[in-house]
Amino acid sequence: GSRTVAAGTPRRLRPILSLEDFEPAARCLLPRPVFGYVAGGCETDASLSGNRSAFADYGFVPRVLQGVAGRSQATTLWGHTWASPFGIAPMGMCALAAYQGDLALAQAAKEAGIPMVCSGTALTTLEAVRQAHPDAWFQAYVPGEVARIEALLERVARAGYGTLVVTADTAVSGNRENHVRVGFSSPLRPSLSLAWQGVSHPRWLLGSFARTLLRHGMPHFENSQATRGAPILSRDAVRDFGARDHLGWEHLRLIRRRWAGRLVVKGILSVPDAQAARDCGADGIIVSNHGGRQLDGAVSPLRVLPQIVAAVPELPVMMDSGVRRGSDVLKALALGARFVFVGRPFLYAAAVAGQTGVRHGIDLLQQEIHRNMALLGARGLEDLRDGRVVPL
Ligand code: FNR
């Protein structure tokens, strides 16, 4: 039977039949600069569109009559069993797109038994996110100076996080021309057109932005040592963004010495970097091109996944960028990923219907995985690793 639209689904979510349906709904709802910030890639958007077409270049070779009635998509990673093999990727400034966006993502993820990664550029404190989801992970943009790195690690540990994700693909920010075109900037610059965008999107203005201002004041960056407390309209908010281009593997080794929890390096696309992460003592890596937002033309994670998995067999290799369907998740796992992350669709879901929207999105992806496992003849996710996906 069809379990796609559960009884009691709010009216607004009834037309949302797959993760991709959240995007047009969010486009209507959000002011252009906010939607553009989330949706955009960089330069020609080659990586952004390549992330989708990569999945289309692989096909399934299903098995039949495998007795799949008791199939399960549960996944164990470092001794913790998650309900599904996917989680919510770290995204900055979620609270700009959705009222208390980070908390909506965290609560829905917790409820569904999947991980959510709190962003280092969140407008919500990492402590509050950890409270909403005790098994959430924290993602850091490593600050320039050693003293700041140490202070951040101490704060993250004190908040109770067990897993730290270090994003490594942001020596500088990508060239997001799209931000200029849509009128987004960091810091945000007040302007007539920005005000007009707000007024012409009243549901966002009243339900999200005004509500945030009234209850919590102007959104602040909360999780960087340098920019903590800097409102999004202030130059101080971007004070340390430029100072990361001198970071090297020695900084990762330093973090490894000071961080006792699980350490994950995000933004790897090459075999030598995967090996370097392993040699520095990382517990896992996320193969990612940052959702096509950093180096335009960077290869899609899916295309380099098999060789990276083969090069570091001792490490759980995870991936993100372009995952939209249960079939995408299953293709990535069949190519050797242990876990995947999904970004934009869950933020659109939070914008459209808060925690309920995110939960709906998670449910849809879980249902697609459950159904497609049956059609593939897989009882467990480990069954996928026997050539059930081939390049087309
Ligand atoms: C991101 N991403 C990101 N990554 C990170 O490590 N720290 C961050 O703060 C952010 N911020 C951020 C904001 C927004 C609006 C987006 C869309 C993305 C990248 C993110 O973690 C992930 O790599 C991609 O979003 C995955 O691609 P998809 O699923 O969005 O295609």
UniProtKB/TrEMBL annotation:
Keyword Oxidoreductase on entry: yes
EC id: 1.1.2.3
Signal peptide region: none
Cofactor: FMN
Keyword Metal-binding: no
Active site: H290 (proton acceptor)
GO molecular function, one term: FMN binding
Domain named FMN hydroxy acid dehydrogenase: residues: 11-392
Residues that, per the record, bind FMN: 90-92, 119, 139, 167, 266, 288, 320-324, 343-344
SUPFAM superfamilies referenced in this protein's UniProt entry, alphabetically: FMN-linked oxidoreductases
Residues that bind glyoxylate: Y37, Y141, R176, H290, R293
Keywords from the UniProt entry: Flavoprotein, FMN, Oxidoreductase
Enzyme class: oxidoreductase
Record-stated family: Belongs to the FMN-dependent alpha-hydroxy acid dehydrogenase family.
PANTHER family linked to this entry: 2-HYDROXYACID OXIDASE 1, S -2-HYDROXY-ACID OXIDASE-RELATED
Protein name from the UniProt record: L-lactate dehydrogenase (Cytochrome)
Organism, as annotated: Acidovorax soli
